[in-house]
Amino acid sequence: MSQHTTQTPRFRAFDERNFEQLSGFSNLNADDRFAIQVVSRVFPFRVNSYIADELIDWSHIPNDPMYQLTVPQPGMLSTEDFDKVADLLRQDAPPETLASTVLAIRTNLNPHPAGQVSLNVPQLSGDRLPGLQHKYRETVLFFPQAGQTCHAYCTFCFRWPQFLTDSEVRFSAPDSEGLVRYLGQHPEVTDLLFTGGDPLIMNARLFERYLNPVLNADPPMLETIRIGTKALSYWPYRFVTDPDADELLRLMERVVAGGRHLAIMAHFNHPREMAPPIVQEAIARIRNTGAQIRTQSPLVRHINDSTEVWRELWRKQVNLGLVPYYMFVERDTGASQYFRVPLARAWDIYRGAITSISGLGRTARGPSMSANPGKVEIQGIAWINGEKVFALRFIQGRNPDWVQRPFFAKYDPEAAWLTELKPAFGEKEFFFEQEMREIAAQAEHQYDEDEEEDQ
Ligand code: SF4
């Protein structure tokens, strides 16, 4: 294990209650400060001292991408919603009035997209397992209760309701007992993803408490353990100088030594996140454990919507030994109106970047929409029989048989999500839609039955 050269600076988190202590606070004018107060009533806000001191360029706010990534922006709410909350704050309205207005705004922002609640939560012996999601045959997502927060919150995050203190629906499991039993009954699952939030917000001992039962049960079909994390970007000291950094790395080594593939699904949105030497040291230490680091990010307006940024992102990742994995399309939830990039433009950015890097970086798939029926990738824009179309395919599907089947949508320069696309060639609907309705109806029926039983 390499020797580290740095001391851990003090981790300090900031939110709407104490952001005046941020190092760049003096760069914010009165309007900026009030807008942060307004928007953070609706969306979660958390930034930390490392991001404020090392990643944000305060001389370029508000356009600085790291500032856009971590500090709530006025455009994240419609003018109407912004004004509603702003007026209530100015009038010093009673908390319950403010809370009901905020709740109504959130409810209109599609808080649980892509069937996460109604379709993805699996059952075990007739009981729902709210800390698990099982959408694609081979992969189960596990949400450890203690890992349902992050070192900072990304403004665009599709899991934003997960971080609200008053959220009614939170995916989380108090322990991994249900997970182990579920894996025992589902030999088709080869991949287990620890997700959140950021599971690496947990200290090594706590993480081990969730992981050990799985390792001890040793499900024979389980080949890969993935950990979804943004700690490399938001708190790289986690792997280098935190008091339990070595313990965490030893845990990773143990997974690898047990014969399983350990995949760190690292989340980088902008090349600047990889520039600090501490990040590169953290990457080297993780790779020394035998784990592989794959990278993913959505394409987000105001943060990384340019070919140059993606070219640099993927080049740098290959240079550091990381494997570019996904360019996602921003999901249709929360502040997506502010962050969304039309699919046509997303395709241009992807193509421009992927064609200007070496073959080793061309492992990145995308632009991919994690939509209700599955992960749908844009394969290109083409003219077929005189019609301009998007060529599409499923990378993953609720029905595995949908995967890799090409299908086509009418070209629409403004469309930014699957539900905004229309089938090409005069077709009434896409090939999967009837079956998707049946799947949804079946799940709804089951959900209603469960609810009745619970009452
Ligand atoms: S780190 Fe990941 S889970 Fe946490 S806010 Fe950012 S995108 Fe969401």
Q: How would you describe this protein?
A:
There is one protein chain. By secondary structure, the chain is of the alpha/beta class. The protein has a domain at 13-107. The protein contains 14 helices and 15 strands. An eleven-stranded mixed sheet has the order 5-6-7-8-9-10-11-12-13-14-15. Strands 1-2 form a two-stranded antiparallel ribbon. A two-stranded antiparallel ribbon has the order 3-4. Helix 1 crosses helix 4 (79-90) and helix 4 (79-90) runs antiparallel to helix 5 (95-107). It binds iron/sulfur cluster.
- List how many beta strands DSSP finds: 15
Distance between the amino and carboxyl termini = 54 Å
Work out the radius of gyration.
22 Å
Q: What's the story with the biggest beta sheet?
A: 11 strands, mixed
Low-confidence stretches: none
Number of helices: 14
How do the strands and helices of this protein lay out in sequence?
Blueprint: E1 13-14, H1 30-42, E2 47-48, H2 49-55, H3 65-70, H4 79-90, H5 95-107, E3 123-124, E4 127-128, E5 132-136, E6 139-142, H6 177-185, E7 191-194, H7 204-217, E8 224-229, H8 231-234, H9 245-257, E9 261-267, H10 277-288, E10 292-299, H11 307-319, E11 323-329, H12 336-339, H13 343-354, E12 365-370, E13 374-384, E14 387-397, E15 407-410, H14 433-454
Parallel strand pairs: 6-7, 7-8, 8-9, 9-10, 10-11, 11-12
Antiparallel strand pairs: 1-2, 3-4, 5-6, 12-13, 13-14, 14-15
Helix pairs in contact: 1-4, 4-5, 7-9, 11-13
The protein binds iron/sulfur cluster (SF4).
